[in-house]
Amino acid sequence: MNNLIRSLTVILFCLTSLPPTADAQGHRRVFSKIMTGQPYILECYLPQITNGPNYPSWSPDGTQIAFGMKGSIWKIRVGETTAFELTEGAAYESMPSWHPGGRYIAYTSEINEEIHLKMLDLETGKVTEVTSGISINVEPEWAPDGKRLAFVSSRTQGRYNIWMMDFANGKLGEPYRITQDYELVPPTVYYGNWAVHLHPTWSPDSKELFFITNRDNKHGSGGFYWMKAEPDAKMTRFHYEETTWRARPTISPDGAKMVYSSYLGRQWQQLWAMPRRAATTSRSPTATSTAPARVGPPTATVSPSSRMKPVTPPFGYSIGSAASLNRSRPKGSSISAPWASCG
Question: What is the span of the domain harbouring residue 191?
Answer without folding.
Answer: 39-252
